[in-house]
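Structure tokens please, single chain.
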Amino acid sequence: MKKVLIITYYWPPSGGGGVQRWLKFVKYLPKFEWEPIVYSPENPEYPSIDYSLQKDVAPGLIHIKQPIFEPYNIYKQFIGVKKSERINTGFLSESKKPKMSENFAVWIRGNFFIPDARKFWIKPSIKYLSKYLKDNPVDLIITTGPPHSMHLIGMGLKKKLGVKWITDFRDPWTNIDFYDELKLSKWADKKHHTLEQEVLNSADGIVAVGEGVIKNLLAIPNKTPLVIIPNGFDEDDFTGIGKVKNEKFIISHFGSINKTRNPEGLWKALEEIKKDKPELIDQIKVKLYGKIDYQVIKMVDSLDLNEQVEFIDYLQHSEMIQELVNADLLLLMINRIENADRITTGKIFEYIGSGKQIIGLGPTIGDAANILENSNAGKMYDWDDIEGIKEDVLRNFEKQDNSIDSLSTDRLKYSRKMLTKKMAEFLDYK
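Here you go.
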């Protein structure tokens, strides 16, 4: 059996979507004659903790760890929050207005921690893994980012040892949606671009979660093998899960919502339903699971929809799966930013795996819209298509039932097992 070393920042008990991609690949790779070895930090700063994900870690997995220095305790002290508080990702603010100290901290992060705050783990990891790999050789190394510091570890090992190395991009680098909010100097911007291009030029192969990520990367050499392997859903997660009968029609969203992901079209559609069909509005409930930007809460309040919208903190993955199945309609939001047509969120695939219908708000022509259409899982509406959103909600309200749809072939192609088979084939090619 061939061996592959996977260098990742996120690993259980980390919660969130970033950890699940390689957690599931690692789970299924042995079925395709690849033995995974995982390298991750010993003392990371995770935005959320989810112990339920540990069930997917095989008891015999070789998992090596090394300490990491991160400046988050200094950052927390600087902006005046407790050490125990976790830092939100993606520039989500739960307060009315960010403090001046927070804005200054963003400037420090963007201009001094390049490519990210995990940069202090690069050199120690190269040193440690160089010795480890001489004693425990592998056939291949994979780095997955963000954080893109992981790719710099892989590049360093390739230069030092000549080992084959593949990069996996879960998100873009200099074209990620919040890049412009990093308050970068010209020097820092150039440094980011230089590092990204060097990684792309040096890698022996490139994996990305979607066509949009590829388009949002810098130039990829023609000679470099490239494959798109999306995120997916694990059929095992849904085994034995039954739907609970709801007293109301439930529209659910899972994951954080920052200001560029605010479903304004849905709020305005519900406002119209409240005005035109007051007898129905009390039978509709929107449940938002995860961290929510203050701007979203403010808009819900301004439209007098507080009775219709419920804000619920982060759920562990196993609990989330149950709530996915319980929902009558699943809400998918694409950030309202430039190149939004290239965005595919990880949650779309577990939405698909639930067998439920999906209502999407975002570009009607783009990666996410194509996935919904090709899997017959729902429809994408323009952010401002209030009439279309309203009609979709009312149509699903009228046909609601307590059943769970069986998964079609179009949906099953996004199963983690099928996607791991595709990954293994790419690794074999290398």
